[in-house]
Each structure stands twice: as C-alpha cells, then as structure tokens.
Amino acid sequence: MIFGDQRLLRLVYVSAAAPTLLRNDLIEIGRTAQRNNGSLRVTGMLLHVEGEFFQVLEGPGAAVEEVFSKICEDDRNEWVTPLLRERPLRRVFRTWTMGCFDLPFEELPRDLFFRADWDEVRLRIKADRRQEFYGFLERFYRVNLQFGRAAMT
Ligand SMILES: Cc1cc2nc3c(=O)[nH]c(=O)nc-3n(C[C@H](O)[C@H](O)[C@H](O)COP(=O)(O)O)c2cc1C
C-alpha cells in the first residue's frame, strides 16, 4: 500500500519502444507489471504495436503515479507522452492487473482510434471525442477478456 492519494485515477500515455527492444523484453515487462500491479491494486492494458506502446493505468492515484514514474525512467521505452489523467467513477479493466498485447498494426481493432497514428489518437482523446475513446476501451476489454490474464498475448 502506498500512502497518499487513494482516489481512483486513470492515466493514459503513449511511448516509443527502445530500438533494441526484443520480444523477451515485452514478456518480462508484462510479468513485472502483473506482479507489481496486483499488490498495488493497479489495473489496465498495455498494447505494443510495431515499436509503439499505448498503456492505460487505473488505480489509487498515488500507486498509479508511482508506477508511471518508474515507466518514465525505464530505458526500454522513450518519449513517454501522457495523453490523459482523469478521475473515473469506475475501472474499465477490472480483472486485468495488466492485460498485455503485442499486435501488428493490421490486427488492431478496426476502430477509429487505430486507423490513425498516435498524434491523431491524442487529438481524439480530447474532450469532444472522449465518448468514442471510452467506447474503444470498453470494447477492447470485452473482446479480449479471455486473453488479458497472460503476461503477453
Ligand atoms: C512500456 C512499459 C510498461 C510498463 N508497465 C508497468 C506496469 O504497469 N507496472 C509495473 O510495475 N511496471 C511496469 N513497467 C516496468 C517498470 O518500468 C519497472 O521496470 C518496474 O516497475 C520495476 O519493478 P521492480 O521494482 O519490481 O523490479 C513497464 C515498463 C515499460 C517499458
């Protein structure tokens, strides 16, 4: 348990994977995330798409910020760019200590958010398109519910 802010926080960011990153590093990141997040009551999803990461972290504010600051310092990724910090009423990824997915671009859900590059994703997360963003998160969780427990799918 980390003291401090216990209110539910959702933090979404994108980053670039280090050029030297291997598949084994992804598996290791997934295992570490699931191990640590469980005891911190942090849930979420981590998507690796051809050299880019997209992650959603949900949990008590202080724990989420603690995990995020470690990720920012981790040289397995760079250009960490927060897209959103908000106070949701409830979690989307309720049962995933971290649902980890390594997908080629073509296998991404045929969804508004992934037809475009990350700059576009960032634009769409802005308030006017926020409902579409939540729709994507909810759908991603529902469709992949059975896969999200493995360290890396
Ligand atoms: C893209 C990415 C996502 C990560 N996600 C998490 C995470 O959700 N939870 C976590 O504890 N560590 C995560 N990590 C690993 C942390 O940066 C750090 O290595 C780890 O928390 C250290 O854990 P340890 O102190 O148990 O060794 C992530 C790393 C990367 C590169």
Describe the fold and architecture.
The chain is of the alpha+beta class and 153 residues long. The protein has a single domain (8-143), classed as Alpha-Beta Plaits (2-Layer Sandwich). The protein is built from 5 helices and 5 strands. A 5-stranded mixed sheet has the order 4-1-3-2-5, sandwiched between helices. A hairpin with a 2-residue loop joins β2 and β3 (52-60). The longest helix has 18 residues, at 23-40. The two termini are 29 Å apart. The structure holds flavin mononucleotide. Flavin mononucleotide binds at residues 29, 32-33, 36-37, 46, 53, 55, 67, 70-71, 74, 76-77, 98.
Name the average pLDDT: 87
Shape: globular
Number of strands: 5
Beta-strand percent range:
25-35%
Helix content: 25-40%
Spatial extent as radius of gyration: 14 Å
CATH class label = Alpha Beta
Weakly predicted, low-confidence segments: none
Count of structural domains: 1
Q: Specify the structural class.
A: alpha+beta
Biggest sheet, strands in spatial order? 4-1-3-2-5
Topology:
Elements (H helix, E strand, L loop, with lengths): L7 E10 L5 H18 L2 E7 L2 E9 H13 L3 E10 L12 E4 L9 H4 L2 H8 L4 H14 L10
Parallel strand pairs: 2-5
Antiparallel strand pairs: 1-3, 1-4, 2-3
Bound molecules: flavin mononucleotide.
